[in-house]
Automatic annotation (TrEMBL):
GO terms for cellular component: cytosol. GO terms for molecular function: carbohydrate derivative binding; glutamine-fructose-6-phosphate transaminase (isomerizing) activity. The gene is glmS. The keyword Glycoprotein does not apply. It comes from Thermobispora bispora (strain ATCC 19993 / DSM 43833 / CBS 139.67 / JCM 10125 / KCTC 9307 / NBRC 14880 / R51). Catalyzes the first step in hexosamine metabolism, converting fructose-6P into glucosamine-6P using glutamine as a nitrogen source. This is Glutamine--fructose-6-phosphate aminotransferase [isomerizing]. GO terms for biological process: carbohydrate metabolic process; fructose 6-phosphate metabolic process; protein N-linked glycosylation; UDP-N-acetylglucosamine metabolic process. Its EC number is 2.6.1.16.
Amino acid sequence: DAGHYDTGGYEHYLLKEICEQPDTVARALRGRIDDRFHIAHLGGLNMDARELRSFRRVKIIGCGSAYYSGQMGAQLIEELARIPADAEPASEFRYRNPVVEGDTLYVAVSQSGETYDTLAAVQELKRKGARVLGIVNTVGSAIARECDGGVYLHAGPEVSVASTKAFTSTAVVFALLALHLGRVRDLSPAEGKRICDGLRRLPEQIKEILTLEEQIRELAIKYSDAPGMMFVGRVRGFPVAREGAQKLKEVSYIHAEAYPASELKHGPLALISPELPTVAIVPDDELLDKNLTTLEEIRARNGRIVMVGHRATDAADDCIVVPKNENELDPILLTIPLQLFAYHAAVALGRDVDKPRNLAKSVTVE
Ligand code: G6P
């Protein structure tokens, strides 16, 4: 807890934890990449290859940022392992009497391992005979104990209410799980190597992103007087947008809404004006042209745009350019500038960044 873990010279735990990510991501990877066979070593799964091959679906549950990291995870599992996967808030899942299937792998995500809604969902799954893995930070926590197996993040204590390093470590663990599931199914060794090499590059690339802090701070100040912000992303970029909006809401209290970029024209485009700037996630992948078209649509309605992506574009007012990794892994990196953006917007507005009003670090009651 905060007692034996101080801010280490940083002004807030939130900033400290953002800046720790080169190390925490390295720790999530340590000992888990096999360079000979391009597979992941995840000893705690307690499931052999035969069992892992038998799953026909993956369902991920969690709350808040854990849920958004689960959306990122579902995308990784579908892309790398080609197993249908989706994420759902643990609370919704538990209240709707879900159909529990024997050939579905359930994955519960929780930084604290104590979130009541997630724990209750896991207990319900176990009651109905499901196989449940946990992706958890806190060793020996209630959710970790309840699951059949799992993967620890080893991110160290996260004190700031707004989750940052646990989010990126969870996404990294999902990439390892997706690699593992893929390699016991039909992901080729060459594709496995491509992902292993990409994962290994992450800590250095996160360091590079952290050097953009001053530029991001200036942008956060520039946009912090906006009454609200729109966050848009497509497919891989959508969980990034959701987590970016969540961070901004939690710590700055600026209203933020995340939307799939493709859905903008089906409703929220009506909101676009200079008073509602957009943060657009624009990775340099096969959807780049589609995303640039979205930027033009926003511009045509006099919307201001902060683009977060891999190459600057005139279609945006401001651009935050981050290093490129493999398309599947880019969302992990694209999340980090949004953490810094939320942090500096909150500081500019004089908010209590580590302990935002009305929120608790872990919600252990119903
Ligand atoms: C609370 C926190 C969120 C967190 C969520 C899930 O609502 O305010 O920041 O994402 O719980 O926490 P967990 O410990 O289960 O990841």
